[in-house]
Sequence to fold (43 residues):
Amino acid sequence: MTELVRVLRGLRRLTDDPRDAFAHRLRIGLAVAALILLLSLLR
Fold:
């Protein structure tokens, strides 16, 4: 469980630039969506 928390903290992006923060969230969201799609296709 602590490894999962460490990975999730690594995904956080601390920046003051709103465009950079939005792009980072978009990339993370797309990665999560791709993972969900992959897992659903494997069922």
